[in-house]
Amino acid sequence: MDASMLIDEAVEILKSQIDDTAIIACSGGIDSTVAAVLANKAIGNLLHCVYVDTGFMRKDETEEVREMLTELGLNLKVVDASERFFKHLEGVTEPEHKRKVIGEQFIRVFEEEQVSSGAKYLVQGTIAPDWIESGGGERDVIKSHHNVGGLPDDVDLVIVEPLREFYKDEVRDMAAVLDIPSSNRQPFPGPGLAVRVLGDLTRERTEACREACAIVEEELEAAAEAGLIEIPWQYFAALLPVSSVGVHGDARVYGETVVVRAVRSIDGMSARYSEIPHDVLQKISTRITNTLKGHVNRVVYDITHKPPGTIEWE
Q1: Three-class SS of residue 165?
Q2: Contacts with 148 (C-beta within 8 Å, 6 or more apart), sequence order
Q3: What are the angstrom distances between the C-alpha of 292 and each of 72, 91, 161, 185?
């Protein structure tokens, strides 16, 4: 079935499932944006799109997403919940615990929005890999996605998932037909930088990771534009809770480690690491260590496939 037929089918299913006000967690990523546009086609003004700034977004992402979703004609509300998320994640370092805390706080934000909007339904951009990797039945938990395995048990909303049976490549095809600008946007995890900052989720460490991610994106996109590489499917930086000896001038210092990750994939279920030229990696390393001088003094490149690794580090 082609993308246009999938879109028509999804809209009809949404019309049959939703008979009252609904809200959607719209991050600006391809999954939630496609789900939002489909729901908007199905129920129009009954849909309330909520973008939650958790404090773990990429550099300038909130304003970019606000502009994109508004241009798509969605009824959008931006909620700054960063204080809330940092507070609840204080001292939380175990990856599964992080995801569950984030999942619960997402739902709590939407429950508060439910009061003001009177929403009965929660539309989510869950796709097949989300629930497959989150486990259940005979499936092992690889990682709990915040919109699946991270959901609390006492959710007071009817959850609707129009993309649940689709894979990332199918969702991209639908986005292209719907003329969604994010159709070629690289995947970004629902928990955001919270799963790229390994260890303590302080504002300082999160800001360092945000800056490192921006540098990786800028340099790899510039290299692709120059014809030096094929743009990876996903590419980012993660901040590791590993301190090592470094040198700044004549001074011996300790700094943390940034790992650069870039992979080739089709649907995210498996991936091969991207072979990035050394001069491009060197430029990335120099920019990160210069920009984050005093915080980061070592940059490494991850050459692990999926499997055995996952794409994100947590």
Answers
A1: coil
A2: 126, 130, 131, 134
A3: 36, 23, 40, 26
Residue 143, CA distances (Å) to 148, 151, 178, 292 in order: 10, 13, 30, 30
Q: Which residue has the tokens 């004549």?
A: 250
- Asked whether the beta carbons of 64 and 40 are under 8 A apart, the reply is no
Say which residue the tokens 């939650």 belong to: 52
Contact between 188 and 29 (Cβ < 8 Å): yes
Per-residue pLDDT tens over the stretch 25-36: 888 888 999 999
> Would strands 47-53 and 22-25 be described as parallel, antiparallel, or unpaired?
parallel
Residue 262 β-bridge partners: 235
User: How far, in Å, CA of 204 to CA of 200, rounded?
Assistant: 10
Domains along the chain? 3-188 (3.40.50.620), 196-301 (3.30.300.10)
Instruction: Determine the average pLDDT of the residues in 256-282.
Output: 96
Q: Give CA–CA dist 282/147, Å, rounded.
A: 37
- H or E element at residue 277: none
Which of 20-34, 100-114, 127-141, 229-243 shows the highest mean pLDDT?
229-243
Distance CA 110, CA 301 (A): 38
Q: Could you give the CA distance from residue 38 to residue 245 in angstroms, rounded to a whole number?
A: 52
Integer-rounded Cα Rg, in Å, for the chain is 20
B/e letters for 109-118, b = 16+ CB within 10 Å, e = fewer, are: bbbebbeebe
pLDDT of 56 over the 60 cut: yes
